[in-house]
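User: Sequence in, structure out. Go.
Assistant: Echoing your sequence, followed by the structure tokens.
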Amino acid sequence: MLGVVAHDAGAAEIISSHLRQQGAAFGCTLEGAARHVFERKFGFFKAMPLEELIEGSDWILCGTSFLSDLEWRAIVLARGAGKRVVAVLDHWINYRQRFFRHGQWAFPDEVWVGDELGLARAGQEVPEAKAVLVPNAYFQDIQKELAAVPVPQRPAGAGEVLLYVCEPLREDGLALYNDPLYWGYTEEDALRYFLSNVGRISSQVERIIVRPHPQESRDKYLWAADEYDLPIVTGENKTLLAQVVESDVVVGCATMAMVVGLLAGKRVVSCIPPGAKTQPLPHATIERI
């Protein structure tokens, strides 16, 4: 049996799409946003306790989290039990730090990445594990799903719709480095930097959609509409793909949702504040303020 372990949404999207394409049978231990991802794609399922999953599985396929130690514990237990364990890297930055928890490193046998950019970085940052290029099944699904999402009709001459995709930077910095300002700014600072520089991105804005990260509450950024005299909408109950399709520009710091914007053929802009420590996404077509 294949055992699946995931907490964060990014890797859960890739793993679940891969399993669905392969038609593979699996058991799972899921927490956090990963539960919602698997429920959306597979319907009802029964998650198992981690120790039971490891014991009953032939090998383990897990994600990698920024905050949770779930996958780290899965790697430790699987390696201790002599089971093969593979970790999916769902981004392009901070690879090595994902395998450090509680003062200890725990590396899988393999890491799977979805493109050549990730393959090169994984080989450099995680030499302890074999880096393997496995086509990103989530991106393949997205490209199919994007074609089916209806494009809202807007009147001629309407301004541009800007989608801002958020990241829980404070929580990540605190969990990884015990410093909420490790990156040099917070998620609120980043949003304010974007809203203060909207005119540098578009001279005619019809609407600004602020989309919280899956780990954040939908009402986290309601303050923005009160603080800025701009047509800001936040807290919508819509999918990422629906919001990307209805937008002209996708803006963020270094989140996976920006790459979804690229897949949809949208203009994508990085608004990492000056002097920040965040490493930009490596995609050449992403513009920067």
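User: And one key feature?
Assistant: The chain has a mean pLDDT of 93.
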